[in-house]
Specification:
456 residues; 6-stranded parallel β-sheet; 48% helix
């Protein structure tokens, strides 16, 4: 890729995990070529871009020293280091317990470091400020480059047709141009509404066909058929929570008050339905328990037909969801969401976000393009935080989201809702495209990394 961009191919982009160690391997290669350890480190540092992806502790590999000694005994001699100096490369200054932290290693061997959203950059500076003792937190050299999504992959045929008509047939080549996206305001409300309804009907057909085939092939029993969404209605306001079932993402937050939830879902005149999908890591028992809780609600006779869980979540399922639901729900416990991209994909297709102000939504939300749950002031108490966030979530649904969706004019079009749909597309489309993201990486990371040293 670097050659294609006209950059020095010696530039290396690392992240947490094994690629952090490969940065150390580059140092070893330079030492083997006859350079001193200090020279090799400087060459590698100035040509390495390191992106940290999560504040979650489980996302940062830390290996006990006895394992490092078992598998790397003799390795440090190739670098010209003592055992103690080698292990120090992976030491987190704030952690007294012995362990080799791969993220700490990558940070020490990289001159260009970034988080994956503006908020995550701030959180990362706080997490890793001790690596730069004496440097004020706001001057810690960790910047942010917010994640973006590959627009052609995630856009629906219905929305693409509209965009080609009103934004120009080559709109994808200008996916990071705000002026181009401004033209979405020219799309007539009735055409936008019809495109949204078409996407929703496709989603419901997809869900029902999966359930039908599951029954025909003997993979699903009757209860599973119902729990997988066979009774969902294309007329009801549809919310979606689809992502990894990590505990900090709080998939079950909306189940905090079941009686209040039932009132929302079972309103005869303004019904609401929920779709869940996602997987938990096999070793994440609490995350798997969340899935069981969701599935139990799907089978509840009082809620049946209003809640569905789609199994085998993958990109194919995700495409139907980000294109076909009405609201994209995300309620992580701040500040654990580094960026998130599913909501960006939804926005491209006219699906507004209802999300906690964390990750990308901190910079995506502008007050008129979706709904936001502000962070609780009592972040130290998880129970109090959950109570606060659940209350705000319910209040937004009851007082704003549901009434706005069901307020129609004489033509049956929810004009106020369509305005939010258009604003979600117009504001988020250019800012969270992969095209913008790659350009930003080139400008602030790859190009400086390629030009600060001589070609190697």
């Amino acid at each position: 890729m670097f050659r294609a961009l006209g950059l020095n191919p010696a530039v290396w982009h690392a992240n947490e995990g094994h690629s952090a160690f490969l940065t150390l391997e580059r140092v070893r290669e330079f030492v083997q070529q006859g350079r001193s350890y200090a020279e090799a480190v400087e060459l590698v540092r100035h040509s390495t871009v390191f992106t940290t992806h999560t504040p979650v502790p489980a996302g940062h590999d830390v290996f006990p020293h006895h394992l490092m000694e078992r598998y790397f005994s003799g390795y440090w001699e190739h670098l010209g280091l003592t055992r103690e100096a080698f292990l120090q490369l992976g030491q987190h200054p704030d952690h007294s317990e012995p362990g080799f932290n791969m993220t700490a290693l990558a940070i020490r061997l990289s001159a260009h470091i970034n988080g994956v959203s503006r908020e995550h950059g701030r959180v990362s500076r706080a997490m890793w400020k001790s690596v730069w003792p004496g440097v004020p937190e706001d001057l810690v050299p960790i910047r942010s480059i917010t994640n973006g999504v590959h627009v052609p992959t995630w856009i629906s045929p219905e929305m693409n047709q509209l965009y080609c008509k009103y934004m120009g047939p080559d709109w994808v080549q200008h996916a990071d141009d705000s002026a181009v996206w401004q033209r979405t305001l020219d799309i007539p409300d009735h055409q936008m509404w019809e495109a949204r309804l078409q996407q929703k009907r496709k989603l419901m057909s997809f869900i029902r066909e999966r359930a039908r085939l599951g029954w025909i092939n003997g993979h699903l029993d009757p209860t599973q058929v119902l729990a997988s969404g066979a009774l969902l209605s294309p007329e009801s306001l549809t919310l979606c929570f689809a992502r990894r079932f990590a505990t900090y993402k709080r998939a079950t937050l909306l189940f905090r008050w079941p009686s209040r939830l039932k009132q929302l879902l079972q309103d005869r005149h303004r019904p609401v339905q929920l779709i869940f999908s996602g997987k938990a890591h096999p070793a994440d028992e609490p995350g798997r328990h969340f899935i069981h809780q969701v599935y139990r609600f799907c089978k509840d006779h009082g809620l049946g037909g209003h809640i569905a869980y789609l199994e085998d979540y993958d990109m194919h399922v995700s495409k139907y969801l980000v294109q076909g639901v009405d609201v994209w729900l995300n309620n992580p416990r701040p500040p654990m969401e580094a960026s998130g991209t599913s909501g960006q994909k939804a926005s491209l297709n006219g699906v507004p976000n209802l999300s906690v102000l964390d990750g990308w939504w901190c910079e995506g939300y502008d007050g008129g393009n979706g709904w936001a749950i502000p962070a609780s002031t009592d972040l130290a108490d998880p129970q109090a935080q959950d109570e606060h966030d659940a209350e705000v979530l319910y209040r937004l649904l009851e007082q704003e989201v549901v009434p706005l969706y069901y307020t129609r004019d004489r033509d049956g079009i929810p004009r106020g809702w369509i305005q939010i749909v258009k604003d979600a597309i117009r504001t988020n489309g250019p800012r969270f495209s992969a095209r913008r993201m790659v350009k930003e990486y080139v400008d602030v990371a790859y190009a400086p990394a390629a030009t600060t040293i001589a070609p190697v």
